[in-house]
Amino acid sequence: MPGKDLESEIRHGHHGGNVMTVAQPCIEPAAHREPERHLWCISDLTVSYGEVIALSSVSLNIKENSVTAVIGPSGCGKSSLLCCLNRLTDFIPGCCVSGRILMHSKDILGGQIDDTRLRKQVGLIFQKPNPFPLSIRRNFELPLREHGIRDRQEIEHIMQSTLEATGLWKEVKDRLNKPAHQLSGGQQQRLCIARALSLRPDALLMDEPCSALDPISSGQVEELVLSLRERYTIVIVTHNLSQARRLGTDVALFWLRDGKGTLVESGPASQVFEAPRDDLTKLYLRGAIA
Amino acid sequence: MYLRSPARASTVLSPMLIGAGALALLASALIAFIFFVVLGEAMAALGEIGLWRFLTDASWHPSSGEFNLLPMVAGTGLVAAGAMVLAMPLGLIAAVFVTFYAPSPVATAYLRLIELFAGIPSVLYGLWGLVVLVPIIADLAAPGSSLLAASLVLALMVLPTIALIATMSVRSVPLERIQAARALGFTKASTMVKIVIPSARKGLAVAAILGAGRAVGETMAVMMVAGNIVQVPESIFEPVRTLSANIALEIAYAMDVHRSALFVSALVMIAFVVLATALLEFVTNKQAMPDVHPD
């Protein structure tokens, strides 16, 4: 395949940065013809860590302004997929990524992409809340300053509006100078979401954002995700099937086949949950296998 | 039953505990013993001359009854401070380089090299300073043996200590914190400056203070390149004498009050170290990451 050679050359930078990534239209699945836009078109994505193949030739389109729930058992490459979408894979030693991910018609795996800007556009929420060990205010100040916003009033304004959007403002407005680590786990996670939103991203990636939280905090984070899905493209990895049902507009099921993570089935949530095409999906949804 | 198992565990451990306790006691007793010997020896001079004259006498001429220690205090402070100003940034850069930038074989080789440097006897550093550094500085400004030469040699000597401790503390910064910063679009450089270094602050303070402790105490190498003239230097090219060099130079022939006055020198050095340790306590008791609000 000549296209693939070109691509791998771009990634390995053999062309000294002269070759532009070729913009290609996303190939929409034939099933739905309505004018749905895809934020990411993933084709033939393979992720390996040394000998271990975490994801094997995955092709998947992710719709704009929707919640794509990524489900499947542990170790099937769900988190690896997320890390590819904001190129956090760059920092994992021994991690090798091949294939293509188009975002706004640009291959984000290519060398020409400004990866820090990509990460500003695509926020990542980790499993364990990870606010900086600073005050709540500084947790906003530091990233905003990093991206060139220095005006104190503007920072205050952005902080307040994102805290309001995450329903945290009332809870923290009197303690903005207090350490973020004094907040409860759920509040910390919502703070992290607000911090990611303060950079005005297009998308949010969430890696099991509720698995370290109690049921009430989990519920609050879920409500928050629902309230955000009109405006942001959200990809959420979850082990919790009922959470996937509650949140997902689209679903992608991954499975470990022959020691490799593979995509089993993807599509709108209603279709995958009500009329799964793959036998494995049927069994998994019924709880027969896990 | 619940209470029993820890009790039994401690019975099993008790010979070891007693042994460790005894060794710890011995070590602290030795330190106390050394301190009291120094204090005892210094008492004669403190009684006869009085503390005040150690600060106000015209100069340090023990044979003519002048005992001003201030030039040596200044010498020690300036030489050590100069060494730290040079070694601290270098040690920090080395730590960040080894941990986040160097490919792992380079990092390992670099660390081995630094460990090797830490093991070189100080007289060799002094010799190198004497034959290489002093002539170069003499070309710039005579006589060459100077505050600058002493600080440079000392910086090289404390660099391994600082770099190794700084590396340990930079390595112990939680990975999640670094990932959080990278996921928020921080560049590598600003992740270092804004997240890693502030997070490693405690360990870096430990590195600085241990380095400073060594810088204050180092005798041989400093004596070989500092010039050892008793004066408060007016420029970095002027010779200085440190407290430790003062003791080493004069103890061989000092008698009576002069000898006792040298123990006062030692007491002042102990004070330097105690001060550094108190500073260490103060710094490490603070928050792990500074929370400053710039206006």
Q: Can you walk me through this structure?
A:
The complex is a heterodimer of chains A (290) and B (295). Chain A has 290 residues and is of the alpha/beta class. Residues 1-25 and 28-33 of chain A have low confidence and may be disordered. Helices cover 36% and strands 24% of the residues of chain A. Chain A contains eleven helices and ten strands. In chain A, α5 packs across α7 and α7 runs parallel beside α8 (215-228). In chain B, α4 crosses α6 (147-171) and α9 runs antiparallel to α12. Chain B folds into two domains: 4-56; 71-284, Orthogonal Bundle (MetI-like fold), CATH 1.10.3720. Chain B is globular, with a radius of gyration of 23 Å. Chain B has helices at 4-49, 51-56, 70-101, 104-119, 122-140, 147-171, 175-183, 188-199, 201-217, 220-225, 243-250, 256-284; strands at 60-61, 66-67. Chain B has a two-stranded antiparallel ribbon. Chain B has twelve helices and two strands, in the order ααββαααααααααα. In chain B, 76% of the residues lie in helices and 1% in strands. In chain B, β1 and β2 (66-67) form a beta hairpin. In chain B, 38% of the residues are buried. Chain B is an all-alpha fold and 295 residues long. Classes of the chains: A alpha/beta (290), B mainly alpha (295). Chains A and B meet through α3, α4 and α7 of A and α7 and α8 of B.
